[in-house]
């Protein structure tokens, strides 16, 4: 007999929207100026980097909530079918738009023909004092294959969009979860020990085995390519789920949360790097800690159906539902739009809402036009004895900073 669906909770949707908003605003107002110095003049500057990490914590939490309900192989395919098609379309669109924009903004001319536009090298030096990087066919292939991290340190190829780092990391995490979940040796003690290892081993590798400044490019490529610097957020999400299921003591999950906050601070802002003085570090670390506490409250406490939140619940739910599509298209394409608006003479206070609004609209288009129909098509053929299991909550897969 089929079980009734779990009621949707506004608390989770609100956390997703807050985290996504932090990512989008941070990229528009802060990261954009670091990559393209002309993109300044906004009325606010959001330097905190915690949104993507919180989204990954929430994602790990709901991996546990949904994986226990069905066949791990079908669960994994469900994830792949949901994420990969929209990502591939976003990569192609971003490549085409950024190639056109980079050539135009740098004051160059297109090589002749369609092939020249798609893959050619524009002749002559750029005339703009802040030229934009022109992506190559190798960048396109690397991004489609999700192997950008394996070539960036040797300058072989680059990210078309800096936000794309999350997808290969999450797919590896999902694959690991699907492989480990049904194993009979996966006792509670071993699971907790594994979670602690996910936090402590990457820190030991980065700061003890290979002290800062001593690791070779090959070691760093494997470290970041395997996503070891982000494992602590997945460990925190699983630990919070265990605590919500009354399988982990409160003091123990508090230790996990404290360790995750410390790991987040060290991995994002390692102590051997000179910072532009704490303008990013403390807002990022404190923001991550506060949002992690709110994730704990959402996991085990009552839903946040306060009168004010109940009124905006439909809008919050809609934004949470397009969060993955929004994540895919907001950053590099947002920079292109911001530069075009700057060239058109729009001031920063007007550029900010236009770029943010365009990102939301584009995110909806990707979600409604690619993500959902592709997912339905790829998962519609099910055997009668193995019905498709819906998630208790829509799982955001992605992030930015």
UniProtKB/TrEMBL annotation:
<dbReference type="Pfam" id="PF01757">
    <property type="entry name" value="Acyl_transf_3"/>
</dbReference>
<feature type="transmembrane region" description="Helical">
    <location>
        <begin position="163"/>
        <end position="181"/>
    </location>
</feature>
<feature type="transmembrane region" description="Helical">
    <location>
        <begin position="282"/>
        <end position="300"/>
    </location>
</feature>
<feature type="transmembrane region" description="Helical">
    <location>
        <begin position="80"/>
        <end position="102"/>
    </location>
</feature>
<dbReference type="InterPro" id="IPR002656">
    <property type="entry name" value="Acyl_transf_3_dom"/>
</dbReference>
<feature type="transmembrane region" description="Helical">
    <location>
        <begin position="349"/>
        <end position="370"/>
    </location>
</feature>
<dbReference type="InterPro" id="IPR050879">
    <property type="entry name" value="Acyltransferase_3"/>
</dbReference>
<feature type="region of interest" description="Disordered">
    <location>
        <begin position="382"/>
        <end position="401"/>
    </location>
</feature>
<keyword id="KW-0472">Membrane</keyword>
<feature type="transmembrane region" description="Helical">
    <location>
        <begin position="312"/>
        <end position="329"/>
    </location>
</feature>
<feature type="compositionally biased region" description="Basic and acidic residues">
    <location>
        <begin position="383"/>
        <end position="393"/>
    </location>
</feature>
<dbReference type="GO" id="GO:0016747">
    <property type="term" value="F:acyltransferase activity, transferring groups other than amino-acyl groups"/>
</dbReference>
<feature type="transmembrane region" description="Helical">
    <location>
        <begin position="193"/>
        <end position="210"/>
    </location>
</feature>
<feature type="transmembrane region" description="Helical">
    <location>
        <begin position="12"/>
        <end position="30"/>
    </location>
</feature>
<feature type="transmembrane region" description="Helical">
    <location>
        <begin position="251"/>
        <end position="270"/>
    </location>
</feature>
<keyword id="KW-0812">Transmembrane</keyword>
<dbReference type="GO" id="GO:0000271">
    <property type="term" value="P:polysaccharide biosynthetic process"/>
</dbReference>
<feature type="transmembrane region" description="Helical">
    <location>
        <begin position="222"/>
        <end position="244"/>
    </location>
</feature>
<feature type="domain" description="Acyltransferase 3">
    <location>
        <begin position="10"/>
        <end position="367"/>
    </location>
</feature>
<keyword id="KW-1133">Transmembrane helix</keyword>
<dbReference type="GO" id="GO:0016020">
    <property type="term" value="C:membrane"/>
</dbReference>
<protein>
    <recommendedName>
        <fullName>Acyltransferase 3 domain-containing protein</fullName>
    </recommendedName>
</protein>
<feature type="transmembrane region" description="Helical">
    <location>
        <begin position="50"/>
        <end position="68"/>
    </location>
</feature>
């Amino acid at each position: 007999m089929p079980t009734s669906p779990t009621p949707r909770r506004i608390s989770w949707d609100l956390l997703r929207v807050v985290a996504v908003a932090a990512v989008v605003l941070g990229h528009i107002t802060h990261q954009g100026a670091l990559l393209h110095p002309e993109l300044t003049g906004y009325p606010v500057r959001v330097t905190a980097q915690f949104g993507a990490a919180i989204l990954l914590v929430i994602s790990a939490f709901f991996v546990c909530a949904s994986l226990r309900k069905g066949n791990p192989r079908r669960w994994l395919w469900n994830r792949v079918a949901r994420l990969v098609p929209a990502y591939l379309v976003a990569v192609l669109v971003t490549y085409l738009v950024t190639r056109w924009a980079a050539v135009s903004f740098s004051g160059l001319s297109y090589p002749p023909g369609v092939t020249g536009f798609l893959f050619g090298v524009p002749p002559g030096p750029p005339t703009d004092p802040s030229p934009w990087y022109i992506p190559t066919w190798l960048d396109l292939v690397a991004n489609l294959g999700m192997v950008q991290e394996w070539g960036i340190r040797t300058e072989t190829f680059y990210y078309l969009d800096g936000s794309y780092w999350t997808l290969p990391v999450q797919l590896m995490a999902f694959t690991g979860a699907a492989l480990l979940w049904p194993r009979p040796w996966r006792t509670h003690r071993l699971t907790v020990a594994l979670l602690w290892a996910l936090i402590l081993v990457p820190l030991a590798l980065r700061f003890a085995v290979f002290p800062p400044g001593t690791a070779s490019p090959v070691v760093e490529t494997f470290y970041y390519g395997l996503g070891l610097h982000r494992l602590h957020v997945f460990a925190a999400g699983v630990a919070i789920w265990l605590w919500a299921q009354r399988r982990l003591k409160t003091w123990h999950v508090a230790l996990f949360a404290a360790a995750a906050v410390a790991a987040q601070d060290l991995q994002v802002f390692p102590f051997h790097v000179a910072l532009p003085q704490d303008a990013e570090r403390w807002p990022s670390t404190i923001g991550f800690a506060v949002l992690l506490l709110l994730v704990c409250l959402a996991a085990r406490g009552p839903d946040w159906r306060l009168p004010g939140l109940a009124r905006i619940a439909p809008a919050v739910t809609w934004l949470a539902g397009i969060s993955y599509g929004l994540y895919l298209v907001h950053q590099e394409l947002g920079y292109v739009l911001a530069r075009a608006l700057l060239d058109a003479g729009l001031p920063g206070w007007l550029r900010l809402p236009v770029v943010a609004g365009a990102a939301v609209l584009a995110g909806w288009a990707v979600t409604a036009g690619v993500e959902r129909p592709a997912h339905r098509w790829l998962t519609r053929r099910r055997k009668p004895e193995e019905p498709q299991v819906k998630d208790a909550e829509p799982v955001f897969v992605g992030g930015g900073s």
